[in-house]
Each structure stands twice: as structure tokens, then as C-alpha cells.
Description:
Layout: H1 18-27, H2 43-65, H3 73-79, E1 86-90, H4 102-107, H5 109-122, H6 126-132, H7 135-139, H8 141-162, E2 169-172, H9 176-183, H10 189-206, E3 212-218, H11 222-230, E4 239-246, E5 249-255, H12 256-268, E6 272-275, H13 288-299, E7 310-311, H14 325-329, E8 335-336, H15 337-346, E9 351-354, H16 360-368, E10 374-376, H17 381-391
Parallel strand pairs: 1-2, 1-9, 2-7, 4-8, 9-10
Antiparallel strand pairs: 3-5, 3-6, 4-5
Amino acid sequence: MSTRPASKQSPHNTLFPISFMRACADDLRISESCSAPSPRLTLGEFLKVLQDRYDFLRTRYLTLMGADGSRSILNLIKSTQIMTNILAMFPGQGSQYVGMGKALCDRFKVARNTFSEADEVLDFKLSELCFNGPEAELRLTANQQPAILTTSIAVWRVLTRETDLRPQLFAGHSLGEYSALVAAGKLDFARAVNLVRMRGQAMQRAVPEGTGAMAAVIGLDPAALIEKRKAIDTRLGTIEVANFNGPQQQIVSGHKAALEALTKALADEKIRCTPLPVSAPFHSSLMAPAREEMAPKLKDTPLNPTEHPVIANVIGQLTQSYTIDNLVKQIDSPVLWTDTLATALAEGCDTFFEVGPGKVLFGLARKAVPKRSKIIHSDAIDKAIKDARMLTT
């Protein structure tokens, strides 16, 4: 009795594993309660997104499996799992620049949609301010905060649309924590845009423009800086360490006159103290009125339960469950970024990926993590996409 040889199945007809399809659904931000990646998409637009994503997944599938389907299915399943060694880092104030996001929007529809959504939420053209300035208006904290958040999320959406980037941990520097929460799926983007706009307005009202300032101190450890600060005449006003950014880089914040006195004292000892392009003394006790104003608005903000952990920079550690109190406390508390990076290292992270405008966190990581670590920024989007793809292969 002759047997019929088994026909070789074409990879074009191979069914995607369930884990792969779940990755597709996650990429499109589809859940049981949401049938489309954005409530503003028409059915036709949604189907087009599905087709585009299918084409990407099919190409990815054939690359991993081989054109003849000979490679192990384990390679494919592995590609959909969380990359267990990446910290996604989102920048805060001071990272803005006129023109940010424009090239991104010129090339990627998902970025244009992100800026359009922010424009609609704020009822003014934030996109125009980001793309064309003027710089003085962009620097105002009420504008700067939603501008950096929107640019960061536009970059994030491009990266996750174009690659399989799936970090283990998320963290944001000050304002960037809102971006981290959005990227981790814990906070709605439109809600975050509105919150940081109000946060900026509350911070600006807390201290009249021109009376507060911040500066970066380079080449002095935290303990030595605290002692230098104590030597400043208190009649000049308040001055505090606002950000612990690294072993030899801290940010001071307070009244402008006190900061100028500290700058002069440090300059006499050949220590750099560089003013920051911000409009208020953030993360100092002078922000107490802003905290009081924002507390009830934040307390009413729901957070979505997701499996993606966010390191709160007010404590610099992971907690069992992230709570909105972290965003309330951080307004007038220092940013513990050195501890944040140390926590990521302790959790096994060896890749540090800055998502958003500028390279501030990229620079801080280079000075704080082991040399064997991989550090990536997204300010050059083509290179960032290439780097993210290399992490997934």
C-alpha cells in the first residue's frame, strides 16, 4: 500500500501563534473594552491600520521563521515577549527646543495624530508652538510641560509602531513620569496632557515669573553641595537641591537671588553652575502652593492596572502598586534620579532607552551606569528605530 507524501505547508498559509497575535493586539492598544487603537478612527482607517500591522507582522514572521518555515517556533514566540533588560526613560523640563516633533510628524501619521489630539485637548495649536516657537513661549512651564509630554508620546508611538520595543521598566524624570505612565498604559494620554497643562499653570502661579530659577551643578557630589547651600545667606531666599541626577551632577532650585549667590560661590572654586531654561523653581518647597492646587485634581485621576512597572522618582524605587500620590508628592520634592537608575540596574536592566526630545537622560545614564550597558536616545528617530529593531533580533 503506497503512502502519499506529506505536502509541505507554505509559510504564507501558516497561522500566527496566539502569542504573536496578542502582541499585535497589544501594539494596536486593543483590549476587551476598546475595539480600536483610537476612538477617533473611522472603521475604514482602523481596517487600514490592521492591514499595515498585518504586513509588518507577516514580514517579521517570515524573517524569524525563514522563508521555508524551517526555524523553531520558539524564536517567534520569544520575539513577542517583554524584553527583560530595558528601561524606557522619558525626559522632563529643559529638554525642549523649537522644532521638536516636526520631522517626526512630517514622516509618521501616528505622530501627527498624537499632536492633533493634544491640540484638541488644549484648544490651541501646541503643535505650532513646538514646531515654530517662539522659544520664549515654549519655555513657559504651562506650555513646556504638555509640549514635552506630547513629543515624547509621539516618539513612543512611532517606536512601538515601527518596532517590537517592549521595555521591562518605565521611568520619567519629573514631568517625564507622566509620559512614562502613558507609555506603560496606566494613564490616558488626553488626561495626561490636560493634567500637565494645569500642573504647569499651578507651578507658575506658585512663584511669580522672574523670582525663581534652577541651575545644574557639575563636579560636586550631593553631600558637598548641601554644605555649600547652607553657607548662602538665608535673607536672599530659599535654595534647595531639587534633582539628584548623578554622582557629580545635581540641580538646585529656589529664589533667583540665592541661586546667583551660590553660582558665584561655586565659580570662585572653579565649579560649574549652569542656569536651566525653565521659568520656575521646580521640586523645591516654593512649589507647595502648586502641590495644594494639584492634589485634588490628581486624586480624581484613575490609573489603569497594567503589568508594566513604573519607578516613581520621588522615592527612586519600585513599589508593589504605583499610586497617584507619587505625582502629588513629586511637585515639591526632589527627583531621585540616581536612585531610579540604581533600581533599574538592580532589576537587571542593561539597556537604557531615552524616549523623547533631547539627550539629557542619555547623558546622565552614560555617567551613572556600567560601561557595558547599552544607552540609546531617540532624538535621531531613524537611528532609534534601527537600535530598537536590533534589540528585538
